[in-house]
Amino acid sequence: xxFSAATLAAATGSQDPEVGLxxxxxxxxxxxxxxxxQVDNARAKGWSWRDIASRLGVSKQAVHQKHGARGDARAGx
Length: 77
Hints:
4 helices; mainly alpha
């Protein structure tokens, strides 16, 4: 069953831990997908790893380690 981000966000405030924790886990997965899409978008537009890392509030090494291998393999590098 698919839920909107707004529905999931609302469910995180549930008094039922089963509902709340499942919503948190689903949002975490959605966030990972959205981050990957935006990192790919930024790299395609010529952004440096340093610029991306700055916007995400992490180190250049952290963002490159997390997303670099996926982008390099896809680009045939």
